[in-house]
Specification:
The protein contains twelve helices and ten strands. With 319 residues, the chain is α/β, with parallel strands linked by helices. The protein has a five-stranded parallel β-sheet with strand order 3-2-1-4-5, sandwiched between helices. It has a five-stranded parallel β-sheet with strand order 7-6-8-9-10, with helices on both faces. Helix 8 crosses helix 9. The radius of gyration is 20 Å and the shape is elongated.
Length: 319
């Protein structure tokens, strides 16, 4: 049995898909148990590489009661806390980045500026296991009654500095609606008020607000069949990558070089920060409060043009 720790969010799990598939391929015939928040179980199933989820909200909360796993894999972070948590379940072998503080001298060195997908693939490669950074595709959920062919705008983010201003999302919604898009607004239950404000200012009906009304399976289905997705650097953007849905991703403060879609994916267009340096949201000019200056510099017309471009390219790719 393989125990994998990745107790984070939607985007974090989506970027770990190539590594999870590599574990499945490189260590066949073993049950893969993912230690992650219980609400991520539907997405874990869509990876096709996880047999079950062990509900875990953080590395210090692994409730393992079975026999020691044959292999434990740290896809959560660099340690030492996460290393120690996995070592505590007494695996036959721990695959993790080198961390002397945790007593783990095996594994490759951590690279803070590395792209999140490539980071975990490199970890597996260091242990002689396969992983392909482009293997990001997610399984399509069964039809769950969500609208198809809509344009998804996702104005929220857990990090305030990653939010493009709400008034610009409203302006974008108006502009896209005028161009024939059927716009819907997604988000968590906590972001429902934000989505409702954007809808009101854009002149959209209340039915366009899906924030807080979709579970993870419904959100995945919505993105999989969407016309285009526009969001900040958040989980919805990674779902669009996994389903090859045309998307425009607005970056700042964290650069796209660390969390963006693969640069060879023509259906995805990045606006904002693309350089590799300065990846800490609290050290890039926003103090963690308010929109990051790079995002604030992106205008509505620029995003409208980007949407038109990814649609043009997506049509050419499909043809």
């Amino acid at each position: 049995m393989i125990l994998v720790l990745r107790a984070l969010g939607v985007g974090d799990l989506a970027t770990a898909v190539p590594a999870l598939r590599g574990l499945r391929a490189g260590l066949p015939g073993r049950e893969v148990v993912l230690a992650a928040p219980a609400w991520l179980a539907p997405l874990a199933a869509l990876t096709g590489a996880v047999d079950r989820v062990l509900p875990t909200t953080g590395p210090d909360r692994i409730r393992w009661t079975g026999p020691p796993p044959e292999v434990a894999v740290n896809l959560h972070g660099r340690g030492p806390e996460s290393h120690r948590a996995l070592a505590a379940v007494r695996p036959g072998r721990l695959l993790a980045f080198r961390n002397p503080s945790a007593g783990h001298l095996d594994g490759p060195a951590w690279d803070a500026d590395e792209h999140e997908v490539r980071r975990w693939c490199r970890l597996l490669h260091a242990y002689g296991l396969p992983a392909h950074a482009g293997d990001l595709a997610l399984r399509r959920p069964a039809t769950v009654g969500v609208p198809a062919g809509v344009t998804v705008l996702h104005p929220g983010s857990k990090v305030p500095a990653k939010r493009w201003p709400a008034d610009r999302f409203a302006g974008l919604a108006r502009a896209l609606t005028a161009r024939g898009h059927r716009v819907v607004l997604t988000g968590s239950a906590d972001e429902r008020a934000l989505a409702a404000r954007v809808a009101r200012d854009a002149g959209l009906p209340p039915t366009a607000v899906l924030a807080g009304r979709t579970g993870l399976t419904e959100l995945a289905a919505l993105v999989a069949d969407a016309r285009v997705v526009v969001s900040g650097d958040t989980g919805v953007a990674h779902l669009a990558t996994g389903y090859r849905t045309a998307s425009v991703v607005l970056f700042g403060p964290v650069p796209a070089a660390r969390w963006g879609p693969p640069p060879d994916r023509l259906r995805h267009l990045v606006l904002g920060r693309v350089e590799a340096a300065g990846s800490d949201p609290d050290s890039t000019g926003s103090g963690g409060v308010g929109t990051h200056p790079t995002l604030d510099a992106i205008g509505v017309d620029e995003v409208v043009a980007a949407v038109a471009e990814v649609e043009r390219v997506s049509g050419a790719v499909a043809a």
